[in-house]
Amino acid sequence: MARLKESVIEQIKRDVSLLRLVESQGHKPKAHGKDKVIPCPFHQDNTASLVISPNNLFNCFGCGEAGSVIDWVMNE
Fold it and tell me: Residue 4 has what pLDDT?
């Protein structure tokens, strides 16, 4: 499989809104200070343990999944 150039990967991370992607998948993020939170879709989660930060990154305090918009798509 061909690998994308690093510059293209960085452009995707910069230009694609993780928050909009998450919302387009039916999640309903709630404000938590400057961040947004949702129940983590990557494990059984009854609380909002996944944080989406304004710098376009996510981190789950339950299962440890974390990363950029690319990591989000790869984990689906």
Answer: 87
CB-based contact 39:49 (threshold 8 Å): yes
CA distance 47 to 39: 5
Instruction: Decide: 18 and 69 in contact? Cβ < 8 Å.
Output: yes
Rounded CA-CA distance 63/47 in Å is 12
Q: Is 37 helix (H, G, I), strand (E, B) or coil?
A: strand
Under DSSP, the state recorded for 3 is: P
Instruction: Split the chain (76 residues) into runs of 10 and give each run's mean pLDDT.
Output: 85 96 97 97 95 97 97 92
